[in-house]
Each structure stands twice: as structure tokens, then as C-alpha cells.
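Thread: quick sanity check before group meeting

JM: Hey all, I'm pulling together slides for Thursday and realized we never actually wrote out the predicted structure for the chain we discussed last week. Dropping the sequence here so it's in one place. If anyone has concerns about the input, flag it before I start.
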Amino acid sequence: MLPGKDTRAGLIAPLALAALVTVAGCGRQEAPDLVNGKRLFAGKGTCGSCHTLARANTKGTVGPNLDDAFATDKRDGLGQSSIEGLVIDQIAYPRRGGTMPAGLVKGQNARDVAAYVAYAAARAGQDTGALATAAQPAKGPPVAEKAGTLTIAADPTGALAYVTDKASAKAGTAKFVMPNKSPIQHNIALKGPVTGAGPIVGSGGTSTFTASLKPGTYEFYCQVPGHEAAGMKGTLTVK
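JM (edit): ok, ran it. Output follows.
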């Protein structure tokens, strides 16, 4: 989506002009939809496959890290509208010899993606509200307790999610097991008729705890600040 760092300096001035032209024409366009932009950015086979952008939970390494690429620009006072123009230009006219095809997204979708990148790049913290769940991965099938053990893994891609958002168990003692192959720290915790929590673990670790379950509906979730709000949670039904 972006040129290499060695070529960006020579492009800033003309691309900033393109940004101003884009902004000047905004009255004739729909306002950008950041939720759609994030969804498109993080979708399979699109921008996030090649670029790292922390707020979109993407870890691509083929193209530039967008947080790093725009950190200096934002510190130097380049506004979101100008960055949006830069990104729109790069979507339409990628660097020659690169792997990104021209026009990977087009029209209003391209503007939505550019607006989200301009908003999210090098911005501390995590998305909230509708943006927090805009790019959640597809959930796997429900998980059922087996021989007293309920295994619910963290999503291995780095998304703030478990591999499923539904689970079931029988009343009685159950061991909760959360393998974490994600590059981000997570744990698994429970709230409802009975509570419990495993330790927060890094990549390669396993968060576990044991609880005496009563019939009812529970929520399993991650206690790392912001993760539950971003969608790392699910429903456990105990009968």
C-alpha cells in the first residue's frame, strides 16, 4: 500500500497535493465509513495480508508496517486528511515492481480503507465500539466439554478472539484450558453463576483453571484490558 521508505520523501509533496484535491472533492462523495474500511483492510487476501497495522490486528510483513510508516508523519503534524490522500494514491498507483496490484479496492471502498488507515496508523490503544468488532475472524464451531475438560484456544492469528464464541458443558467440575499460539498475551476467565480465571500467558503458554459449574449461562472472556470489549468473549451453556 505504501512505497518504500527510500522513495517516500520524494513523493510527499505531490501526494499531499493529491490529498488536498481529494479532500476538496469530499462534498461530492459519501463520508468515509471507518467500519467498512477496517473490514476491507483486514479481510482475507487484502491489505492486512501484507501490512502490519496494530489496530486492525494484522501482522503482514510483505509490505511496510503502516504504524511505523506514518508515525513520523503524524508526529510532524501531517493530518488525517492528508494521510488519507497518500493512501488513496498508493492504492490506485502502487510502487512499480511491488507485489500490490493496482486498484485492490476501488471507489468509495478505497476511500473507506484509506480513511481507516489514516485514523488507525500509529494511534495508541485499541479500537472501541463498532470498530472493535469490525474485523473479527470467522468463528469456528461450538466447543463441548470432553471428560471434564473444556479447551478453548486463543485465535492464533493475533486477532482479539477465541477460536469459537460458543461452548457447552455439563454441571460439575470442569477444567478450562486455553492454549495461546497468538503473538499477544491472553487468558481465559469465566463469569456467571460461578467465576474463575486462568493466568495471563504469552505466545506458547496455556491459561488454565478449574471451576465447579452450576447449570446456567456464562460468559468466557479475556481479562487483558480492552480484549473483552474488542470481542474476545463467548457464551458457555451449562446443563
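AS: nice. The helical segments are 5-24, 34-42, 66-75, 80-92, 107-120, 129-132. The radius of gyration is 21 Å.
JM: adding both to the slides.
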